[in-house]
Amino acid sequence: TQLKELRRVVFTLFALGLGLPADFFASKTTTPMDSLNCIHYPPRQPDTPEHQMGIGAHTDFECFTLLAQDGTPGLDILSDEGQWCPVPCVPGTFVVNIGDLISRWSNDRFRSTVHRARNHSNVDRYSMACFCCCNPDVVIENLTYDPPKYPPVNAGAHMLARIGQANAINESKKDGSTLTK
Asked: Phi and psi of 14, rounded to 5°?
C-alpha cells in the first residue's frame, strides 16, 4: 500500500512538473503494467574482469522505476558529459529512474536515465526495483507545447517491442552472433 502511494505521488509530481493537473495520470494508471523485481548481484570474484557487468548500460522501458538498495554501492548513471557517476546508497530512500515513457510524454523535459548496475564488492548486493508504468492501452504522446520529438506510441506495444529487443540482445550474447537493425 505504501509503495502504491509513493507511485501515485511520483506520477503527481511529474504531472505538476509538466504544468498539468495533479491527477492527470490517475486515469492512465488504473491497470498498469507494473512489475517488481528483486535483484541479486553476487560478490565480485578476484579473477572477474573489471569491465564485467551485472546489468549493462540501458534505460528502463516504463514510466519510472522506484529502486531500493541494500547499502552496497553498484548503481551508476551516465552524466550529460558521458561520465559514469556512482549513485550513493542512502538508507531509507528510493532512487527514482526516469523511464522511456515519461521521457516521451515530456518530450525529453524528463529524460530516461541511462544507468548500469554491478557489484565491485566482496559481499552480496541486493536491490528491489518497482517498474512503474501506465495502462497498456494508453497512447503516449507529447504533453508539452514544444514540437514533438517522438511519434505517438501505444504503451503496451512499446513495452512489448522493448522487451523483444532486450531478449534478442540477450540471445545474441549467448550464441556469439550479432544483431542487425
From this structure: -65, -40
**CA end-to-end span of the chain:** 42
CA distance 45 to 1: 38
Given a contact cutoff of 8 angstroms between Cβ atoms, the answer to whether 141 and 149 are in contact is: no
CA distances 161 to 18, 25, 29, 43, 125, Å, are 27, 23, 20, 33, 30
Q: Do strands 84-86 and 75-78 pair parallel, antiparallel, or not at all (unpaired)?
A: antiparallel
Q: What is the pLDDT of residues 104-160, one digit of tens each?
A: 999 999 999 999 998 888 899 999 999 999 999 999 999 999 999 999 999 999 999
Rounded percentage of the chain residues whose pLDDT exceeds 90: 75
pLDDT tens digit sequence for 82-108: 999 999 999 899 999 999 999 999 999
Judged by phi (left if over 0) then psi (alpha if -120 to 50, else beta), residue 140 lies in: beta
CB of 144 closer than 8 Å to CB of 107: yes
**Integer CA distances (angstroms), 178 to 4, 118, 174, 175, in order:** 40, 23, 10, 9
Sheet holding 75-78, edge to edge: 55-58, 115-117, 75-78, 84-86
pTM here is: 0.88
Cell 570474484: give the residue: 45
